């Protein structure tokens, strides 16, 4: 579920254009998958970022090293 009532998605008009061209990640308020709320009021309900982010960063570094990419992650 998206909030589409902030200034950056105005003026109104076609809702699909507003979602595709103007909506941002911060506009996502709720996400449900198979009836389970994964995001409620903009907050994760099933993951803890302090646990997930270090693992994802380590995986990103490993992928960069395997791909021999010079950009630091």
Walk me through the structure.
- The chain has 73 residues and is an alpha+beta fold.
- Strands 1-2-3 form a three-stranded antiparallel beta sheet, with no helix packed on it.
- The mean pLDDT is 90.
- It has helices spanning 15-22, 49-67; strands spanning 31-33, 36-40, 43-44.
- The relative contact order is 0.11.
- The chain has a single domain (7-67), classed as Urease, subunit C, domain 1 (Roll), CATH 2.30.40.
- It contains two helices and three strands.
Report mean pLDDT, rounded to a whole number: 90
Distance between the termini: 31 Å
* Residue fraction in strands: 5-15%
**CATH T-level topology:** Urease, subunit C, domain 1
Shape: flat
The tally of strands reads 3
Largest pleated sheet? 3 strands, antiparallel
Quick structural gist:
The chain is of the alpha+beta class and 73 residues long. It has helices at 15-22, 49-67; strands at 31-33, 36-40, 43-44. Strand 1 and strand 2 form a beta hairpin.
